[in-house]
Amino acid sequence: MIERTVSSPNHSVRPFGLEDVWGAILHHTATAGDSGAAVARMFAQASFKVAAHDVIDEHGNVWHCVPLIRAAWQAGMCRAYDWNRDGKLQDWERYVNTHTGGIELCNRGDGRDDFPDAQIRSTAVILRRWDAKCPNFKLRNITDHQTVNLNGKIDMRPNFPAAKLFWWILHPRSPVPSGGAYAQLPDWAKKQVDEIKRD
Ligand SMILES: [Zn+2]
Q1: CATH code of 109's domain
Q2: How buried is 47 (Cβ within 10 angstroms: 0-12 exposed, 13-18 middle, 19+ buried)?
């Protein structure tokens, strides 16, 4: 896993620093699998006004664009998500940029372009790091842009191998079980997989 930094100016403050990070949003770039450098250069332009914290290409290479302690401009106004899992949707839970980290996965986003294992493994490494760094981060708050977007944006498609991602988050050194990862996941992770993979 090769990591590079290409800094983006497209971020703002998190009032409570890393304590503000409750979860993660996954996106696809809608570009070719090897386009990580180009996406990072786009995020580096102030006029683009969009960035995710990290970009991960099909080989599992990572570009760090925004430090996690800042709120990357990855999503506009969003649907509230129960980040603190208290059973209530509150106004602050609409501010997805303030309360999550964002990962852009290089993928055409057409529902047919595969997400290779190297890309999923690197994504699991980054998410485990965030979980270790942020006191309020919850693995059950890993979801995708489509789940929180208000405008029906398709991001991501159901061909994203979400069960594999949760498998490697929970078992970083184990191969995916022969019967598939999904059946072996705890119920909370199955719920997240279903949420990310819905049509
Ligand atoms: Zn997105």
Answers
A1: 3.40.80.10
A2: exposed
Ligand 1 geometric centre to CA of 102 (Å): 9
User: Are 188 and 142 in contact, with CB atoms under 8 Å apart?
Assistant: no
Give pLDDT tens digits for 140-192. 999 999 999 998 899 999 999 999 999 999 999 999 999 999 999 999 999 99
Beta strands 62-64 and 54-56, pairing class: antiparallel
75 CA distance to ligand 1 middle (Å): 7
Amino acid at 86: D
Tokens of 100: 């999550």
Backbone torsions φ then ψ of 173, nearest 5 degrees: -105, 0
| 74 CA distance to ligand 1 middle (Å) | 7
55-86 per-position pLDDT tens digit? 999 999 999 999 999 999 999 889 999 999 99
Ligand 1 centre distance from Cα of residue 179 (Å): 31
- Count the alpha carbons within 13 Å of 2 in the hemisphere toward its beta carbon: 7
SS3 5: strand
Q: What share of the chain is helix, strand, coil (3-state, %, to 5)?
A: 35, 15, 50
Closest CA to 118 of 101, 102, 132, 106: 106
Q: How many independent structural domains does the chain possess? A: 1
**Domain range for 60:** 3-197
